[in-house]
Amino acid sequence: MRKIAILGSTGSIGRSTLSIVESYPDRFAVVSLAAGENVDAAFEQARRWKPRIVSMATPEAADSLASKLSAVGIRPLRDMEIVFGAKGTVQVATIPQADFVVSAIVGVAGLEATYEAVKAGKTIGLANKECMVAAGELITAEARRHNKPLLPIDSEHNAVHQCMRGGRLEEVRKVWLTASGGPFLNTPKKDFDTITVQQALNHPTWKMGQRITIDSATLMNKGFEVIEACRLFHLPPKQVDVIVHPQSTIHSMVEFVDGSILAQLSVTDMRLPILYALTYPDRVESDLTFPVHELKRLDFQPPDMEKFPCLRLAYEAAEAGGATSVALNAADEIAVAAFLAGDIRFNDIPLTIQAVLHETKARHPESIKEVLSMDETARSLARDKVARLSGKTGRPALA
Ligand SMILES: NC(=O)c1ccc[n+]([C@@H]2O[C@H](COP(=O)([O-])OP(=O)(O)OC[C@H]3O[C@@H](n4cnc5c(N)ncnc54)[C@H](OP(=O)(O)O)[C@@H]3O)[C@@H](O)[C@H]2O)c1
């Protein structure tokens, strides 16, 4: 029986993980959950799964969860511990009873707990790519020290992980990460300034959380994935290529030195990579079938780095690593939030990130504390840039 802690249980990946647990009651049990502020969803999950401990992002959310649970006869402290904040998330991630941690909090908020889980010797199912972008070098070093796998849940890296089982790392010529191209693949660049939040949230193939959906529209998500692939599979950026594949049927490919290319195909359903990670190294029967006979065409084209400068910025950060990579994620997080709030335009997202990278000194953090401090510096630069772009400083907005 695999005993699971879920970080980000109320999110898209968290809920899909729980649906897998529901389908395989003899294989998996939930021992702890961490959520943000969605008290209603956390309440339903706590009531259903009876974990030993639940963490919420704020004390208010934790209090509210505790009173809802009391009202249905679940006594906080006695039956279930309710904690909160970054410390609470770490408690959920390092609970001794869990042997597997699903890391699916969005953004750098999930970093400390993911790192502490690796340090505590847990096996990680990794969805949170931002923590690999910000601190991939530190996390992979720690996982190697404990000889524990980091099992990617991100569909592309999960596909690469599967294909990598067909050869040795030194036999890899190249990794091909496929990209759907997002909703603006065929939108002319001249129209990018008028892209609305609604349009950007309308992803053609996947239903995901808001941050990753906007990141998919700017191709920053693919950029993050390039960095994640470099860190997870110990490859330099020049060995990780992006190819636009609008059908999202092939989730990624690995090309070996003899010229063979292995690809992984499956339905576009995140439950499959989650199931793979949870059952690795075994495979178990599932109802997730792909209708091969309906497969009519597979299209590919190179990404347009002029139209999607976020991808170019991510390659630069992949090369530089350290503080540049931390700043890439931090600046993107602030810029995406500002776009979602209607404060800046779609085109301002890469402008903000570029400005922050420009002002970031190349350094390599030696601890998570240092990563978090670099993250804070980059956020403050990004907030400043956003304020200028949105004209909220009282100064005129920049073009
Ligand atoms: N969705 C996908 O298909 C997909 C695919 C590949 C990779 N990923 C990656 O997986 C991660 C999660 O994505 P998602 O789409 O599941 O996002 P999501 O639906 O927005 O869910 C995010 C989760 O993080 C929690 N959270 C946010 N801030 C928190 C904080 N300060 N402390 C504790 N929990 C916090 C949220 O809690 P509340 O809702 O309670 O506030 C929610 O449970 C991201 O890193 C994303 O890039 C997602």
UniProtKB/TrEMBL annotation:
GO terms for biological process: isopentenyl diphosphate biosynthetic process, methylerythritol 4-phosphate pathway involved in terpenoid biosynthetic process. Pathway: Isoprenoid biosynthesis; isopentenyl diphosphate biosynthesis via DXP pathway; isopentenyl diphosphate from 1-deoxy-D-xylulose 5-phosphate: step 1/6. NADPH binds at residues 10-13, 36, 38, 128, 130, 209. Transmembrane segments: none annotated. Coiled coil: none annotated. Residues 150-233 form the 1-deoxy-D-xylulose 5-phosphate reductoisomerase C-terminal domain. Its EC number is 1.1.1.267. Keywords: Isoprene biosynthesis, Magnesium, Manganese, Metal-binding, NADP, Oxidoreductase. Its cofactor is Mg(2+); Mn(2+); Co(2+). Residues 4-136 form the 1-deoxy-D-xylulose 5-phosphate reductoisomerase N-terminal domain. It holds the Pfam family DXPR_C. 1-deoxy-D-xylulose 5-phosphate binds at residues 129, 155-156, 180, 203, 216, 221-222, 225. Gene3D superfamilies: 1.10.1740.10, NAD(P)-binding Rossmann-like Domain (3.40.50.720). Residues 265-380 form the DXP reductoisomerase C-terminal domain. It catalyses: 2-C-methyl-D-erythritol 4-phosphate + NADP(+) = 1-deoxy-D-xylulose 5-phosphate + NADPH + H(+). It is an enzyme of class 1 (oxidoreductase). Mn(2+) binds at residues 154, 156, 225. InterPro entries: DXP_reductoisomerase, DXP_reductoisomerase_C, DXP_reductoisomerase_N, DXPR_C, DXPR_C_sf, NAD(P)-bd_dom_sf. GO terms for molecular function: 1-deoxy-D-xylulose-5-phosphate reductoisomerase activity; manganese ion binding; NADPH binding. Catalyzes the NADPH-dependent rearrangement and reduction of 1-deoxy-D-xylulose-5-phosphate (DXP) to 2-C-methyl-D-erythritol 4-phosphate (MEP). Belongs to the DXR family. HAMAP family: DXP_reductoisom (MF_00183). This is 1-deoxy-D-xylulose 5-phosphate reductoisomerase. It comes from Candidatus Korobacter versatilis.
